[in-house]
Amino acid sequence: MDCLFCKIVAGDIPSKKIHETDDLIVIEDINPQAPVHLLIISKEHFLNLNDCEDPALMGKYLAAASTVAKKLRIAESGFRTVINTNAEGGQVVYHLHIHVMGGRQLKGQMG
Ligand code: AMP
Ligand code: ZN
Questions:
Q1: Of 28, 63, 77, 81, which sees the most CB atoms within 10 A?
Q2: In whole angstroms, what is the distance from residue 16 CA to residue 30 CA?
Q3: 47 occurs within a structural domain
Q4: Is 0.85 surpassed by the pTM of this model?
């Protein structure tokens, strides 16, 4: 499948991986919007939230946000999680991922 994040999960495209479980990887975003900007990427290819109807799996993806926030020491200061879904949600890469941003005071809707 011609999917950027599937290729990153497979290791065919390099990334800065900072965490991994059986279900997901966490990498640094290539165009960071904050000092810490990570992407939690599902290992299984789902297009987006509309395409993943497994609540247990969704819980694991979301739980990874605080795991990596603690690892990068932004859990206490605070961080933001964002999931963009389809065109009007601002989704660009159609493989399920959760943004984790922090390390500065975030403002407004998206910081
Ligand atoms: P979204 O708008 O939610 O689909 O966000 C896609 C995100 O993927 C953007 O923040 C991009 O900067 C990021 N991105 C695109 N290509 C790469 C890449 N090769 N490695 C890491 N992050 C990427
Ligand atoms: Zn994919």
A1: 81
A2: 9
A3: yes
A4: yes
